[in-house]
Design goal:
Layout: E1 2-3, E2 18-20, H1 30-34, E3 40-43, E4 46-49, H2 59-63, E5 69-71, H3 75-83, E6 88-92, H4 96-99, H5 105-115, E7 119-122, H6 124-139, E8 147-148, H7 153-162, H8 176-187, E9 193-198, H9 202-206, E10 218-221, H10 222-231, H11 259-264, E11 272-276, H12 278-289, E12 297-301, H13 318-331, H14 339-345
Parallel strand pairs: 6-7, 6-9, 8-12, 9-10, 11-12
Antiparallel strand pairs: 1-2, 2-5, 3-4
Helix pairs in contact: 6-8
């Protein structure tokens, strides 16, 4: 196994997020063509990853047709956490319905119980908390910079590396899964560990850093959880692990961005700009730096929403996943309490964070 050649994040050589097995490479160079930062290079036929340029989008993995690139397996860390004495809460990103399809919710919960989890939560309340905080940020009129959405770790790193002068424009709020984890630690009696199941591979590294105190103890992708559930089918006699009463996303769209901001904008509204995909994100940020446009709010994501994340059921199209998710949510009963009332009754958890620039030389094709 050939690993990447450089990492400035402090992650050990054998622990890097993406690895490359040179013996399976078919020399199609899809990885080089599709890497948005030109972090993958070929010198005299030898391919390597310049990790200091990698933003962890995972295109090298998803575009490779020969399985040369793999994602770090974090299930051993999860198993080690479950082997400890303290209870472990499974925190599922709200895209779990589509990510684990065709498994039903009760089947997933029973499987998690059989694996040793003491409870199951989703990120819905964390998304509502963050959406409410974003509403307050967007209501302010004193900002001279655009307010850049900061829930996506890939686009955040894109800004920090390639547009460091815009780092101060990133909205200084934690992502919803961190807000939810902090809430779990407040609501559960005693000390608990939290294992986050993510639609995004970049989150697996994000939880390892020091920038987000109170983050989950470990993060795995939905692809890893699906593999664990397949390897360890739950006995039919298992019941359902404890869950809190049903909550629904009323304030937030995908990953904690406020619906109000989206609904109140129009196609002709230049104050709110929505961009999806790193190519268009880069074009917009470059235009902002050049002074060609000055949106008040930028809703930017690497994917077509987190339901399109690389760890979410890659056998299905994003359209199929949205249909599955919508159908399941329509079957669920409406929540007994609206989100704003529910949030007002919850313990306060800190949502602020800071971002620092991490400049990298501009990308040059090789």
């Amino acid at each position: 196994m050939e690993h990447v050649t450089h990492d400035d994040s402090g992650v050990g050589r054998q622990d890097r997020l993406f690895s490359r097995a040179s013996d399976t490479c078919s020399a199609c160079w899809a990885c080089i063509r599709h890497c948005p930062t030109h972090a993958i290079r070929s010198v005299d036929g030898a391919v390597s990853i310049a990790y200091e340029r990698c933003v962890k989008c995972g295109a090298c993995v998803t575009e490779c047709g020969s399985g040369t690139y793999t994602v770090r397996d974090d299930t051993p860390a999860l198993r080690a956490l479950l082997a400890e004495e303290k209870p472990v809460v499974a925190l599922l990103a709200s895209e779990y319905i589509a990510a684990l399809h065709p498994r039903r919710i009760a089947e997933v919960e029973a499987g998690l119980e059989a694996m040793g989890f003491s409870a199951v939560e989703t990120t819905v309340l964390g998304e509502e908390l963050v959406a409410a905080a974003y509403e307050q940020v967007h209501a302010r009129t004193d900002s001279l910079l655009p307010r850049l959405r900061s829930t996506c770790p890939v686009t955040v790193e894109w800004v920090q590396r390639f547009y460091p002068e815009l780092t101060g424009a990133l909205v200084p709020l934690v992502p919803p899964y961190v807000a939810q984890t902090r809430l779990i630690r407040e609501l559960y009696a005693g000390e608990v560990a939290v294992a986050y199941v993510s639609p995004c591979w970049a989150r697996k590294d994000e939880v390892l850093g020091d920038e987000l105190p109170g983050a989950p103890d470990v993060a795995v992708g939905f692809d890893e959880l699906e593999r664990l559930l397949a390897e360890n089918p739950a006995p039919r006699t298992h019941g359902t692990v404890p869950r809190r009463p049903h909550a629904a996303k009323q304030l937030s769209g995908t990953d904690g961005f406020p619906r109000r901001t989206l609904f109140e904008s129009t196609l002709a509204d230049r104050d709110v700009v929505t961009v999806r995909g790193l190519h268009d994100v880069d074009r917009l940020l470059a235009a902002i730096v050049r002074g060609e446009t000055a949106p008040g709010v930028v809703d930017m994501l690497c994917c077509e929403g987190c339901i399109d994340g690389p760890a979410v059921n890659r056998s299905l199209s994003v359209f199929a996943k949205r249909t599955i998710d919508a159908a399941e949510r329509e079957r669920q009963p409406p929540p007994a309490v609206d989100s704003r009332t529910l949030l007002s009754a919850l313990p306060a958890v800190p949502l602020a964070r800071r971002f620092d620039p991490s400049p990298t030389l501009r990308r040059e094709p090789t």
